[in-house]
Every structure is written in structure tokens, then in C-alpha cells.
Write a structure and sequence with these properties.
It is a single chain. With 396 residues, the protein is α/β, with parallel strands linked by helices. The strands form 4 sheets. It has a 6-stranded parallel beta sheet, with helices on both faces. A 6-stranded parallel beta sheet has the order 10-8-7-15-16-17, with helices on both faces. The protein has a 3-stranded antiparallel beta sheet with strand order 12-11-14. The mean pLDDT is 95. It binds adenosine monophosphate. Adenosine monophosphate (AMP) binds next to strand 14.
Length: 396
């Protein structure tokens, strides 16, 4: 995998696709600069190797053309602060303004272009637009994992204009290597924890996982579709009746492939979807009418914990209960603690997918697991076994 470490940047201008789509408050002040900090190693590497850097990104979802609230100008100071370099700004990403600013760039300097999505050609993957971007630089670096599953002009199409001068940034390379380690080359036993509300949104991932994992823990709302499929009573729990047969097929396939499937053996059930609801513990498949399962119960937590803590590699995607409500967060918190414990025991643990990342952050345990993926949609597509166009464009 060719990365910025392998390239001679001396006297070269590198156009770098970063993900600076940072959250902003009403006054356009950055509320979380994680994405900026994440891009720093790649930018510094290029500068230290004698190059100059042209940064390009999208910000928000502008409808048609430039809008002040989506201008990347408001992040220039923060990027400068993290790099220790006065970052220049071009109020356009193509055309004379960008060309002039890029043309004047000297080694060691950094230029930030304005929002790529001020042009609809960006998301359309327009070749002419990609070519205009490419003309600003001598080489292309993709360091934006979060958009690597999109065949946009700046993430994919542009690469064809740099047949020998395209490469991965360190963040993107690290994502790919970590995910590869989790699902292909990690030490066993490999355990996947799949949670979330619906079987339908995770079905492709679960199917892919059956060829790779030793243990599959299924929790969250989708567990009730499995429970009903097996003939259990699930009361008012969330269910996808169209997926009962799919659930049975997954269990059958898992058995054929020697995968141990762990479904909850008990649930925290409630008489209302609210923090103040009455709750009790029900055995799986015996949830009374009028009650819904909103978290996995204490016995399930213990069983899941033992499996996780004796794993060599753990992949966690999706909460196992409605963790946003305090009354139904114990299951997800227990999973988070077990993943931390597994990490301490030497396992490689990867967490990805929006809600499980939100959960590990909520419990303040983000620094105690091996790797947290930055790309929700991109990670899901990789786990589904798809080729990401942004990755393929660099490799091909
Ligand atoms: P997903 O986006 O499919 O990963 O689903 C995440 C959501 O699933 C979270 O917002 C959880 O609150 C929700 N969830 C987890 N367990 C349950 C459950 N038993 N019933 C309803 N929703 C759930």
C-alpha cells in the first residue's frame, strides 16, 4: 500500500483530500476538531519531506453554490494552530483564484481550498472538475476514509490524473490496516458483536461475518427478530416480520460454518419506551404482551462478557440496547467494559459504526480500546465486503 511515507515530495505540490467536515456551532466555531487533528500526521509528513500541501474537503451539505455558513474559511485558524504553519486560504477550489494561490505555493507552505461541494460536479464525480483540481498539484493523496465509499471527483475520479503519483494518507492507510487486522489477519478467536435496531440494515455484514468469525454476538433490537423466528414470544419488542426467514437462515448457516451464535438469554423489558417506564427482567422468548425488550439482561451480559474477554480479536458494531436512555444502557455499558477488558488481555479490538462509537465515548472508554474507526458508512461497506471506490482508485 503506497503511502506518503514512500514518496519523495521535495519540490512537489501535493493535493490532499482530507475530511474537514467538522461540527460547527451557530457562530461557526468548531465544536470538535478530531478530524483536523487526525489529518495532521499526513500533512506534516509531506511538509517535512520538502513538499507543499493543498488541502481540499467538503463541509456540510450546501444546496447550490457557495454559502457563507459552509465556507471552510472558519477553520483556517484551527488548522494553522495544529500544524504550526500559517495556512493560506483560496476562496474557491478551482478556477483562477485556486490556480493563482496554488501556483504561488512554496515548499513548506499549506493552502486550504474552499468547500468542494459548492460545485455539484464534486458529488457527481465529474471528470472535468476532477481534472481542474488535479492541475493544481503534482501528486494526489487521499486521507479521507469517511468519504472513501463515494465515487466523488475529489475522492476517486481525480486519481486517474496521477497514474504514478497517487497514494494513501496515514489516516486512511491506518484505517484500512486496522480493519484488515480485525477481519482478516487478526489472532483468534474472532468475535463480532452486532447490535442496533434492525436486522435489515446489518444483514449483509452478518452474512459476510459468518465466513470470518468464530463467535457472533447478536444484541439490540434485531435480537427480537431472531427470537420471534425461533418461536419465542417477544411482546411489543421491535421486530421485522419480513426478516424472520432470513434470521433462521443466518442461524442455519452459522451452524453449518461452525460459528457460535450468542443471542440474549434474557432482556430488560419495559411497559413504555421511556426512562421512567416500569421495568423487569424477562427470559428470552417469554416477554409478556404489553412489554418490550429494550436492553439485554444480566445473564446475557455475563455470557457475552466471557466470550468477549476470551477473544483474540473483537469487532463491535451497534449498541445492544437503547443506550441513549439511562434505564436501558447497562447492556451496552457492560459490552464496552468487556471490550476494554479484552484489550487489556491483549486482544485487538475495533469499534465502528456511529452508535457504538457514540456509546464508547459516552462511557469515557475511547482511549482504552485498540482502534475506533472514523468512517461510519465507509466502514459498513468494507465490512459488507464491498470495494471502496476511493481505495480502489489508488490501488488500481
Ligand atoms: P443502528 O443504527 O441500526 O445501529 O441502531 C442503533 C439504534 O438501535 C440505537 O439508537 C439504539 O437505541 C437502538 N436499539 C438498540 N436496541 C434496541 C431495542 N431493543 N429496541 C429498540 N431500539 C433499539
Amino acid at each position: 500500500m503506497k503511502t506518503v511515507t514512500d514518496y519523495d515530495f521535495s519540490g512537489k505540490k501535493a493535493i490532499v483530500r482530507v475530511d474537514f467536515n467538522v461540527p460547527l456551532d451557530k457562530n461557526l466555531v468548531i465544536t470538535d476538531d478530531t478530524r483536523i487533528r487526525a489529518a495532521v500526521p499526513t500533512i506534516k509528513t509531506i511538509l517535512e519531506k520538502g513538499g507543499s500541501v493543498i488541502l481540499m474537503s467538503h463541509l456540510g451539505r450546501p444546496k447550490s453554490g457557495p454559502e457563507d455558513k459552509f465556507s471552510l474559511k472558519c477553520i483556517v485558524a484551527k488548522v494553522s494552530e495544529h500544524l504550526g504553519v500559517d495556512v493560506k486560504f483560496a476562496n474557491d477550489c478551482i478556477g483562477p483564484v485556486a490556480e493563482e494561490a496554488a501556483g504561488a505555493l512554496k515548499a513548506g507552505e499549506v493552502l486550504l481550498l474552499n468547500n468542494l461541494r459548492f460545485y455539484k460536479e464534486e458529488t457527481a464525480g465529474d471528470k472535468g472538475f476532477a481534472e481542474q483540481l488535479s492541475k493544481l498539484a503534482d501528486c494526489y493523496v487521499n486521507d479521507a476514509f469517511g468519504t472513501a465509499h463515494r465515487a466523488h471527483a475529489s475522492t476517486t475520479i481525480i486519481a486517474q490524473f496521477f497514474p504514478n503519483d497517487k497514494m494513501f494518507g496515514l489516516l486512511l492507510a491506518n484505517e484500512l490496516e486496522s480493519i484488515d487486522k480485525a477481519i482478516k489477519s487478526g489472532k483468534g478467536p474472532l468475535t463480532a458483536i452486532m447490535g442496533g435496531s434492525k436486522v435489515s440494515s446489518k444483514i449483509q455484514i452478518i452474512t459476510q461475518m459468518l465466513d470470518k468469525v468464530d463467535n457472533l454476538i447478536i444484541g439490540g433490537g434485531m435480537g427480537y427478530t431472531f427470537s420471534k423466528a425461533k418461536g419465542g414470544k417477544i411482546g411489543n419488542s421491535i421486530v421485522e416480520d419480513d426478516f424472520l426467514e432470513t434470521a433462521l437462515n443466518i442461524l442455519k448457516e452459522a451452524k453449518e460454518k461452525g460459528v457460535n451464535v450468542y443471542l440474549p438469554v434474557d432482556s430488560v423489558v419495559a411497559d413504555d419506551f421511556s426512562n421512567d417506564a416500569n421495568t423487569k427482567i424477562a427470559t428470552a422468548g417469554q416477554i409478556p404482551d404489553g412489554w418490550e425488550g429494550l436492553d439485554c439482561g444480566p445473564e446475557s451480559r455475563e455470557i457475552f462478557g466471557k466470550v468477549i474477554e476470551s477473544s483474540g480479536t473483537v469487532l463491535w458494531n451497534g449498541p445492544v440496547g437503547v443506550f441513549e436512555l439511562e434505564s436501558f444502557g447497562a447492556g451496552t455499558k457492560a459490552i464496552a467494559n468487556s471490550v476494554v477488558e479484552a484489550t487489556k488481555n491483549g486482544a485487538f479490538t475495533l469499534i465502528g459504526g456511529g452508535d457504538s462509537v457514540a456509546a464508547i465515548n459516552k462511557y469515557g472508554l475511547a482511549n482504552e480500546v485498540s482502534y475506533i474507526s472514523t468512517g461510519g458508512g465507509a466502514l459498513m461497506e468494507l465490512l459488507e465486503g464491498k470495494v471502496l471506490p476511493g481505495v480502489d482508485a489508488i490501488l488500481s
